[in-house]
Amino acid sequence: MEPDLNQKTGKWMNYAAWIIAFFLLTYWFEGYLNKKENPNQNPSSHYTGQGAIEVELTRNRQGHYVTNGRINSRIVTFLLDTGATHVSIPEHIAQGLGLRYGESFPVGTANGTVTVYSTNIERLEIGDITLTNVRANINPHMQQDSILLGMSALKRIEFSQRGNILTLRQYN
Question: What's this model's pTM, rounded to 2 decimal places?
Answer without folding.
Answer: 0.78
